[in-house]
Amino acid sequence: xxxxxxxxxxxxxxxxxxxxxxxLSEMHGNKSLAITVLAPVPELRVRPRFYEEKVxxxxxxxxxxxxxLNIEFIAGQAERIDTAEKIVFYRTPEGxxxxxxxxxxxxxxxxxxxxxxxxxxxxxxxxxxxxxSAQVFEQHLDSxxxxxxxxxxxxxxxxxxxxxxxxxxxxxxxxxxxxxGSDTETKIIVVERGAVxxxxxxxxxxxxxxxxxxxxxxxxxLNSEIEAIDACGxxxxxxxxxxxxxxxxxxxxxANPLSQQIEGERDNQGRLIVxxxxxxxAHPEVYxxxxxxxxxxxxxxxxxxxxxxxxxxLGKFAGHNAAASLLNIAPCPYRQVNYVTCLDLGAWGAxxxxxxxxxxxxxxxxxxxxxxxxxNELIYPPAADKNVAFAxxxxxxxxx
Length: 400
Known about the structure:
The protein is α/β, with parallel strands linked by helices. It contains nine helices and 25 strands. The longest helix has 20 residues, at 308-327.
């Protein structure tokens, strides 16, 4: 009977974990492993692009790739993990309950936007966190063009000035012009609790973001927090009122709640703290990867960020190591020394940095070309060709 590696999640980490496990099994001519992916749909949703328009097109099917590599796919939503019996219980698309057993479990269910207890947030704030909610946001924007032009209709408040908030805010001026016409005066306002724009970035990167925002007319409310959200806008804790028909929540991210079902230490984002081989110390048969894992990237003390850049490599190492443990092969400690930042800044262009010190290497049109190459090509799944896919899944090959 084949030994089961179960990967929960088909995002960047989950997809690459499956391909990497299949690669190692094939390399060693071993037919004793069964590799299964459990996820709602057999597709990779290109979440880093959800701030763009036509969001329904930002998916990549995985059926052909999985068939080529003999990876089984189970459609379902994981609901409960039993580490004692090594079972995952899930709900099928038809709404029935089912379960699947495993010898090795790889948790790759990603992350979600934090939604704190703020009055009106659940009822009135939009988000671009998942494909479905990003589609709702896009439909909402399109519907605004049917309303009379008012300052409230023409204002968007972005709550949170992190990576997603910046990319969305700088993308919106062009999108609103296309919807309302170039003569309509619009406002994009970012509400940020920090004291400076891009507070966690290098000085050079912060200055570039600020320059782009000024050029695009994107306003910032620094040292500000949301007190309440309603159908007509937001109220800040300092008493300021911003009238807006559109409020988008992008502040904060946390690991999928499934992480709470695994015994282990977590960081303040709910990620499981893992060993260098990406195992959960209390349950070494369980591997956490992608946004579910708090993992050291190097010997300098850096840890993986909740980005596709790190999720892709984490997935490759998790799949490799899970398969290696069943094939009695030495694992590969996760390392990802190289780190880059490529931030889309809308019609202004983009900014590309290298290293954890975030040294700016290119801006504007040149950086935009790099951004497009990354998000439109590099992060997509490999072709449904065994040789191509396996070459790309090597955890020790250079990614960036």
